Amino acid sequence: MRSKAELILPSRRSFVGGAALSAAAIALLAGRDALAASHAGGQMASHDVGILNVALGLEHEGINAYTLGAQSGLLQKPVLDTAVRFQADHKEHAETLIGAIRKLGGKPVEPKSLAEYASALKADTLKSQNDVLELAARLELGATNAYLGVIPSFKEPGLAKVAARLAADETMHWTILNNALGKPLPAGGMPFGA
What we know:
The chain has eight helices and no strands. The chain has 194 residues and is an all-alpha fold. The chain has a single domain, classed as Up-down Bundle (Ferritin). Helices cover 71% and strands 0% of the residues. The two termini are 25 Å apart. Helix 4 (42-71) runs antiparallel to helix 5 (79-103), helix 4 packs antiparallel against helix 7 (129-150) and helix 7 runs antiparallel to helix 8 (157-180).
């Protein structure tokens, strides 16, 4: 039987390993339409839509994971408030991705039902606040590593900066969750993106 981490992290790894966001996609995420247009072509745009839809699917997963956590009744204030804040961040990420996909002429992937996410994330095994935090921390770590994985593919410093900002947001989430779990900081330097 696979662990929760194995169920979650491979999809995030495949986002990085299977394809890297192109300069056009990152330019769209940064709101730089003119730069995106100079990079986008028919086949490239189609490729970018596919990659962006994978990222959007992962954001939908994160949004729904926080919904499941909030609805579980296991989170106490102020942890519940933090979870709702992190969910809002993921909703903003999703809206950004949806806008980029539409600008490229694509159709954004729709979220699955909450029941499908509950099954995939094994929400029925969540029995305590710590269980919810562990799940959220694993999702945030996967997102951190996925976004960090695309940074080296950019020649344009501004595009790398966008990916770095997304990774920083996910790292902030993971750090707060890890601290709430009472876990120590990772040993050694550069624990992310490996």
